[in-house]
Specification:
Structural class: mainly beta
EC number: 5.1.3.3
InterPro entries: Ald1_epimerase_CS, Aldose_1-epimerase, Aldose_1/G6P_1-epimerase, Gal_mutarotase_sf_dom, Galactose_mutarotase-like, GH-type_carb-bd
Number of domains: 1
CATH topology: Beta-galactosidase, Chain A, domain 5
Catalytic activity: alpha-D-glucose = beta-D-glucose
GO cellular component, one term: cytoplasm
CATH architecture: Distorted Sandwich
Strand content: over 45%
Pathway: Carbohydrate metabolism; hexose metabolism
CATH class: Mainly Beta
Bound molecules: alpha-L-fucopyranose
Length: 349
């Protein structure tokens, strides 16, 4: 495996270096210590043409100024926490809020806004970039000093494995994800509407006011949210389903039926022949289809268009701390948090 580095930008007078892992099949993954952000994933198409298959901001300045979350490590808690509040041992905790009175994606200074420590590891069958950071008690309103490690492992089997480890010195919340947006065409000027998606899921979380989960996990069979058989993303995103219309696409959690090594999501694109499969230990995957053009910054000379990318954000169901049966995201001092999500890249002949 090859590990290379390149200057990426400056943050608070510190050099931010981009690390790139490349395997013997010509697949590479690049990431930076700011936000443990994945800046590129390059894979070949069916003709061997290599291209970046993810949506990324080109400059560190734009990442810091506009915080679009592209490829970023999200935490302490991914998604929204209603009113930024939760109850623990009969006490109400008030977190910092940063979107319509809720906490979104870990709050105003979430893990995606921090400069992480970084080291690399090069083994026979894989190479890794290992990021670590500390979130102090009180940051974004969370109790507990949290230490997080995220390992991005690229293997010779063309897998990107994300391995999370975390500890806290007081009961807190932890539900991280990576906010990667895929565009398998390799051209962000094309939309993801002709991508095909298949999910091992029969329920999705409905959204209500302020894009908050209503708590209802609805049966998806026969609806726009039914991906039990592979189907074009456009069939969902352009449907008249009120849940789709309300957010102009997908922005929903899908309950995953299996865990661990089982394949739970298959995203593919016919013209390039590229395919990504996902498996995770988490109970859900949030799929967001970049439902509005982002015109605050430019990528390749133009704003990132509507439907320029699609996320597969593996995580515990959003707002789990306020929804019974969504899962447990409390992290206790005596626990070590471990979770793994894997994406495998291939080409359909
Ligand atoms: C909010 C979320 C979306 C996405 C976006 C960056 O709009 O509802 O899922 O994470 O932020």
């Amino acid at each position: 495996m090859d590990i290379t580095t390149k200057f990426f930008g400056m943050f608070q007078n510190q050099e931010v270096i981009e690390y790139t892992l490349t395997n013997s099949n010509g697949i590479s993954l690049s990431a930076i210590p700011y936000g443990a952000i994945v800046t590129k994933i390059v894979t070949p198409d069916k003709n061997g043409e290599k291209a970046n298959i993810t949506l990324n901001v080109e400059s560190l300045e734009d990442m810091v100024a506009h915080r679009p979350f592209y490829g970023a490590t999200i935490g302490r808690v991914a998604g929204r926490i209603t009113d930024g509040q939760y109850i623990v041992e009969g006490q109400q905790v008030q977190l910092d809020v940063n979107e319509k009175g809720n906490q979104l994606h870990g709050g105003p200074v979430g893990l995606d806004t921090k400069l992480w420590k970084v080291k690399t590891k090069n083994e026979e069958d894989h190479a890794s970039i290992i990021f670590s950071c500390k979130s102090l008690a009180g940051e974004n309103g969370y109790p507990g000093n949290l230490e997080v490690e995220v390992e991005y492992r690229l293997t010779e089997k063309n897998e990107w494995k994300i391995l999370y480890t975390a500890h806290t010195d007081a009961t807190t919340l932890f539900n991280p994800t990576n906010h990667i947006y895929f565009n398998l065409t390799g051209d962000i000027k094309q939309t993801i509407l002709n991508h095909k998606l298949q999910l091992s899921s029969s329920k999705y979380g409905m959204l209500g006011d302020r894009n908050l989960p209503t708590g209802v996990l609805k049966d998806s069979s026969g609806t726009a949210f039914d991906f039990s058989e592979s189907k074009l993303v456009r069939e969902a995103v352009l449907s008249d389903d009120p849940q789709i219309k309300s957010v102009s696409g997908l922005d929903h959690p899908f309950v995953l039926e299996q865990k661990g090594e089982a394949v739970q999501a298959v995203l593919s694109e016919e013209k390039s022949g590229r395919q990504v499969i996902m498996s995770t230990e988490e109970n859900s995957v949030v799929i967001f289809t970049h439902n509005k053009e982002m015109d605050a910054f430019q990528i390749q000379g133009e704003p990132a268009k509507q439907y320029a990318g699609i996320t597969l954000e593996a995580q515990t169901l959003p707002d789990a701390v306020n929804q019974s049966k969504f899962g447990n995201i409390f992290l206790q001092p005596e626990q070590t948090y471990h979770s793994q999500t894997m994406y495998r890249f291939s080409v359909l002949e």
